[in-house]
Amino acid sequence: MSFEVREKDLLARIGRLQTKTRKVETPLLFPVINPAIQPILPKDMGETFGFEALITNAYILKKHFQNEPIKKGLHRFLDYDRVIMTDSGAYQILTHGNVEISPREVVEYQESIDTDIATILDWPTGWKVTSVYAEKTVNETLKRAKQFFEIKTREDILWVGPVQGGKYLDLVTESAREMGRLPFQVYALGSPTEVMENYRFDVLVDMIMTAKMNLPIDKPLHLFGAGHPFMFSLAIALGCDLFDSAAYAIYARENRYMTENGTHRLGELDYFPCTCPRCARTTPKQTSELTQKERETFLSEHNLYVCSAELRRIKQAIKDGRLWEHLEMRSHSHPALLQAVKKLRKYEQFIEKHSPIVKNSGLFFFSSVGLSRPEVVHHAKNLRERYVKPKQANTLLLIPQTLTKPFHKSREYKQIAKLIDEDKENFQKVHVCFYAAPFGVVPIELDEVYPLSQHETTLPLDKETIEYVANQVANYISRTGYGKILLMEDPEDWNGTILNVCRKVSKKKNLKFKSFSIKKASSMEKLRLAF
Ligand SMILES: [Zn+2]
Predict the structure, then answer these.
(1) What pTM was estimated for this model as a whole?
(2) Distance CA 295, CA 266 (A)
(3) Is 87 assigned a catalytic role?
(4) DSSP β-ladder status, 455-457 and 23-26
(5) Rounded Cα gap, residues 35 and 44, in angstroms
(6) Is the confidence at residue 393, as pLDDT, over 70?
(7) What value does the mean pLDDT of the chain take?
(8) What is the mean pLDDT of residues 194-220?
(9) CA of 291 to the centre of ligand 1 (A)
């Protein structure tokens, strides 16, 4: 097995990928090297910037340098002793309308230059294309992939099988399923570059998730052309392990300065929001006095530092089990990113299935966006599918969440517990559950189970969250079979929504129902009588 997973959070993983040159840790960013026009030497990419891997383009190498990389070997040719991946150049070939190289030649060339990770010559789908064209790209890529296994001679190279289909998700499904049956060591999502350039991160979520759900989950997934650090956490959270970035250099050429939250034009900055070794020693004004070439180098280097720092933050977040929090924070960099994170609701069941649920730290709940996080989905699923109420309980007493956690240690609950205690006989019949955001219904005997007490929630709750909790309450009452429902209502925090659903579902199921305001002192006496 060339890929070993060490840590997981959401669909993200920290893994070890064994290549013939050395073992590398994922998620891994491969800066794109174009030996013909390279602002930063490959050697410095490793020694100064700490990049363990690079990617370069086999087609460009062959076109510009022919046999030189074959004679020297790619590592010596680039003067880089770490891991090198080669892209087949399919994208360039298509955009230049050039077909002077065959799929066979691309495979043979990559073997003869001794690359570590190699890509077959696929046929990228692109963005503004018809479904008929898209289908053609899927079929042609698959045909080439099958032929490839008859052409390749080297077993020590990791081969990449690209998934195509673009925005046509049924085609992505088909492509991922068929490619997934072939024994590639790495899979890739082909050419989402235009989707990203158009800020359609919501479409990107669909594309990645469709590929992910139909590919072997234990193999690494490469996302081609995902070069901006502000979307790294999104792609990694969805299970992309490998990325390549030409953006650091392209942006530099256009005087654009990357940050983990977006991009600035260099000329518009008065202060550098960065303390990388390059930015720490200069000011935007000073850089404006540099030559274009010097400025390009400065920006390339800064951009790389930013990419590398964001990747490290994400890895730490995976280790801490706080990738969701990191993702939500980044999603506020741009409305299109938040839109993409909202799209995760569509895939919450799959993400929950593959994500660890128990973590070392508590979770932060900010808004209804967090309702899709696996811990919330997991609790709802558990309650729905596995939970059985105490046998003798006939009365459900619903109490709103308290600031104190676990809830049963709160002042509010202690008052009620005293009441119940006074009448031991009836106590057997009363079952206390809390209604709480974001988890919905929390039976008292579970309120110390992770993460039902280990979370912080923003108040006041937003409308969608209140509705979610109300829905959970209604479903819980509908399926559990109590005879009587007593609701401690908190009109301020819950807007009457919980009261309304409880009333409605009790009527429908023919259950006795009473509600009391938790804010009124007289409620305790009334509650006692209601037992
Ligand atoms: Zn910097």
Answers:
(1) 0.95
(2) 10
(3) yes
(4) unpaired
(5) 14
(6) yes
(7) 93
(8) 94
(9) 18
**Token pair for 298:** 């400065």
Tokens 């794109």, residue located? 32
Q: How far is the CA of 208 from the centre of ligand 1 (A)?
A: 30
27 upstream amide cis, omega within 30 of 0: yes
Assess whether pLDDT exceeds 70 at residue 99.
no
State how far the alpha carbon of 268 is from the alpha carbons of 160, 285, 303, in Å. 41, 10, 16
Place of tokens 């993409």: 340
Cα(285) to centroid(ligand 1), Å:
14
What are the residues whose beta carbons fall under 8 Å from the beta carbon of 294, sequence distance 6 or more?
A: none
| Active-site residue (options: 44, 79, 81, 87) | 87
Residue 370's pLDDT is what? 97
Q: How far is the CA of 283 from the centre of ligand 1 (A)?
A: 10
- At 332, the pLDDT band (50, 70, 90 cuts) reads very high
Centroid of chain to Cα 226: 13
Query: If pLDDT is split at 50, 70 and 90, which confidence band does 381 have?
Result: very high
Alpha carbon of 296 to ligand 1 centroid (Å) = 13
Under 8 Å between Cβ of 14 and 272: no
CA distances from 72 to 88, 109, 113, 352 (A): 20, 13, 8, 48
Ligand 1 mean position, distance from CA 333 (Å): 18
Q: Which residue, 169, 175, 177, 170, is CA-closest to 203?
A: 169
CA of 278 to the centre of ligand 1 (A): 6
Can you tell me which residue has the tokens 């050419």? 191
pLDDT of 226 above 90: no
Closest to 59 (Cα-Cα) out of 21, 102, 5, 16: 102
* pLDDT tens-digit map of 135-167: 999 999 999 999 999 999 999 999 999 999 999
Residues with CB under 5 A from ligand 1 (ion): 274, 276, 279, 302
Query: What is the C-alpha to C-alpha distance for residues 460 and 524, in angstroms, rounded to an integer?
Result: 25
